[in-house]
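Fill in residues.
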């Protein structure tokens, strides 16, 4: 066996044994490095005759490329084995830690907002939002409530900023309902429109079922064909899903809102005894929302062609339906920040429904 065969055999043997990139690199330096075995033999070619150089040179070149191929192959093998090992031994926990001992929980209003948003999202509604501080025009005038309109009195409005400028269109108010987001949406989006607007609303009012800050969900559907039947179907479907009851007592009463024509209010049957309120029966009725077909005047105020488009709207009291669903009798306690109340009526993070579709206007 000539010297080249011996070197080849030795290197191959070492490569087979090698089980780390470090050893592979050592073998590479031993064979092909500047002072490596094969490199040295190549250098010795210069002292040979031309014929010797021709035959031996070919042999040594073949060996050189064979060895470097073997080294590369073994290196790749070791790298993939290493990676495999690493993947098996290392793991990354992407979940956020939850402190189960924590005292914090979800307020019923947040919970109900999320439940409501999810039900309407499933029906194809988008979630829209608008500012809490509104100007007079969006909150009233555009909604067909001109400055001298008696409906303004019903709203017990909190006016801010300009004290003696109540009826100017630039006066600012804390929005008395979520309906101004109807206006904002119609001004910015072309029909068809399908939105709900969960948000805070404000009126100067306080008793068992009223607080100065409360919550509403507005709904708006504008297209070419929607009618009162769709409005009713949509709301009844919502109420059944929300309360999780197939048979629910409800009634639609004729009503009046300047921005809808015709208008109605929806009540839910309940039993109210002393400090308790329970869903069901028809002994008492709790008004939960106002609704109707969008008044063509409002469509025109918002740049929507009322000869082509029509639709319905509703505005629902979130706190009211939360009280009914979870048996809370006094709305004022929602906002007392009494930890005992919050602990009793609050929800665990695990009960929070997943997210829905949301955009801002
Ligand atoms: N904005 C009305 C209210 O707050 C409710 C409503 C909304 C009625 C949409 C009709 C249509 O009382």
């Amino acid at each position: 066996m000539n010297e080249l065969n011996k070197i080849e055999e030795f290197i191959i043997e070492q490569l087979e044994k090698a089980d780390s990139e470090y050893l592979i690199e050592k073998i590479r330096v031993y064979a092909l490095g500047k002072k490596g075995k094969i490199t040295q033999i190549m250098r010795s070619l210069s002292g040979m005759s031309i014929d010797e150089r021709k035959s031996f040179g070919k042999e040594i070149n073949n060996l050189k490329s064979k060895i470097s191929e073997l080294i590369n192959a073994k290196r790749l093998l070791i790298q993939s084995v290493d990676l495999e090992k690493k993947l098996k031994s290392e793991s990354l926990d992407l979940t956020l830690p939850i402190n189960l001992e924590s005292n914090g929980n979800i307020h019923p209003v947040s919970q109900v907002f999320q439940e409501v948003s999810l039900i309407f999202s499933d029906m194809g509604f988008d979630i829209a939002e608008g500012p809490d501080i509104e100007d007079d025009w969006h909150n009233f005038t555009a909604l067909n409530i001109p400055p001298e309109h008696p409906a303004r009195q019903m709203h017990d409005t909190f006016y801010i900023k300009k004290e003696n400028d109540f009826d100017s269109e630039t006066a600012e108010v804390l929005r008395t309902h979520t309906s101004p987001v109807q206006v904002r949406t119609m001004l910015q989006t072309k029909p068809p429109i399908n939105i709900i607007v969960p948000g805070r609303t404000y009126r100067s009012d306080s008793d068992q079922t009223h607080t100065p800050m409360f919550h509403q969900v507005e709904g708006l559907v504008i297209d070419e064909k929607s009618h009162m039947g769709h409005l009713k179907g949509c709301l009844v479907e919502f109420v059944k899903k929300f309360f999780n009851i197939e048979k629910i007592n409800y009634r639609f009463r004729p009503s009046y809102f300047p921005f809808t024509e015709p208008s109605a209010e929806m009540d839910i049957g309940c039993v109210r005894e002393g400090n308790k309120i329970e869903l069901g029966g028809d002994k008492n009725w709790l008004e939960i929302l106002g609704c109707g077909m969008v008044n063509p005047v409002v469509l025109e105020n918002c740049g929507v062609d009322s000869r082509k488009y029509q639709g319905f709207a509703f505005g629902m009291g979130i706190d009211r339906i939360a009280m009914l669903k979870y048996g809370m009798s006094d709305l004022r306690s929602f906002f007392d920040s009494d930890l005992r109340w919050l602990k009793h009526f609050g929800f665990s993070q695990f009960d929070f429904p997943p997210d829905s579709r949301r955009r801002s206007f």
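The pocket of phenylalanine is lined by residues 177, 179, 218, 257, 260, 290-292, 313-315 (CB under 6 Å).
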